[in-house]
Structure formats: structure tokens, C-alpha cells
Fold this sequence. Notes:
By secondary structure, the chain is α/β, with parallel strands linked by helices. It has 3 domains: 6-135, Rossmann fold; 139-202, no CATH class; 212-255. The chain is 45% helix and 11% strand. The chain has 10 helices and 6 strands, in the order αβαβαβααβαβαβααα. It has helices at residues 6-23, 43-62, 82-94, 106-112, 116-119, 144-149, 177-185, 204-218, 221-224, 231-250, and strands spanning 30-36, 71-77, 99-101, 122-124, 167-170, 189-192. Strand 5, helix 7 (177-185) and strand 6 (189-192) form a beta-alpha-beta unit. The longest helix is centred in the first third of the chain and has 20 residues, at 43-62. The radius of gyration is 24 Å and the shape is elongated.
Amino acid sequence: MPRLNPIAAAAGGALISVAFAVAAHAADPLKIGVPTDLSGTYATLGEEVMRAVRFAVDEANAAGGVAGHKVEFKSYDTEAKPDLARRQSEKLVQEGYPILTGLIASGEGLAIAPLMERWSSIYISTINKADELTGANCHDSTQALPLLDAIPPLQGLRGRPRSRPDCILGDRAYDAEKIRRALRARHISPLLAMRNTENGSGLGRWRWVIERTFAWLNQLRRLRLRYEKRADMHKALLSLACALICWNFLQGHFP
């Protein structure tokens, strides 16, 4: 059996679960359309998409289907061209495959996303990275507490490792009473700028340290533009960059 990218396999399994949740009341069998790039710029990724879909479908059908529904899929080549992706996706929908996934280029996803309601279909985006298709435009305040709770214990000069700071500084994007209450419940002082107030809160003299660090990281080409598909490789490069910044700072190479 050929090796399968574990990320692709996970995406394929998630596809089956989501697809059934949407089409549980559809006629048997459960049909999934896979318009993807098989001969264009991203043909290699398209092959991984197809391997993941085949793996997930075979696994589901070997177990008796999804809640008794046999799973079928059909694929057409989009050549990574948005206009062709739209035509191929519409063709799949007309042939009875209303659940679509597999598009790789963001332009392809953007080409079909506005048409889902008209086609009475659903598009499951697993690779596209355009802001309009992902959660990149989530408000900063929605990520504040999850980010805080993800801080690992940090060892200081003495005493037990700490995973909670004494205070949190934030700009007006974090001005929410819900965040203030949650921070106080964690015994953290919220120093958050308030909306509809004049500039000059004084928090900038501390926040500029973070902005300066971002500027240092953006000097590194591999971080300014992400080239790695795998998150662990990108994180490794980020950790290496932070280590280099700390070293240069301690050596006095930064002002």
C-alpha cells in the first residue's frame, strides 16, 4: 500500500465526516465531487488530494459506509485555473455530486465559493489560504484568551515555572469587558486601551518591544513569506529565528 501523507489522510477523514453531516438526508449513496489540479502547477498536491480522498472513501466503505451510506466520489482536472475550476465544479454538481472539495489554488476556491447557494452545494476548503476563505479575518479579541491559555510554563531565575503573566497589555482591538473579566479571573491585570478615547494611553512604550520583534522576524525571508506547507517545519524555522534574535540581542548587535 503506498504511503499517505498523514495530514492528507486526516483531511480525507474529516471530509467524510463533514460531508455526511451536510448530506445525511440526501439519497443514497453519499456523493463527493473532487475538482483538483491533476496536470497544472499544483499537480503534485493534486495527487496527494486524490490519494487522501481514495484512502478515506475506501476506509469508510470497508466499515459499511457512513451511517449506512456508501460513499462515492468523482474527480475532474482543474489545471489550477479558476475559470476551469468553476466549470468543472458546476459539472460535478449537475452530475449529482453536491459536496465539493480538493481545490488547491485560492483563486479556484474564490471562483466557486459565491456560487454555492445557487448550486445548493457546499464547498469544503482544506488547502486554500486566501483570507476570504479562511478564518484569517477573525477579530483579534476572539483569539486573546486561547493564546493566553496556550502559554507553556516558563522557568525564571528562581521559584516555580510560571504560565501566567502579572498583566496583559493590549490595544483598542482588545477592549472588551469579557476579556477583562476573564483576565481578572486568572489573577492577571488587564491593561487594555479603551475605544473612543484619545491617543496617549502610555501603553505604547511597552508594546513597541513586540512590534520591534515582529520587524526583526520579518527581516528573514523564510518567515516574511511562508514557503513551507508543513506547520512543524515553519514552527522550527520560527524557533531558530527567535534563538538567533536572542543571541544577537545578548551580543549587542541590536540597539
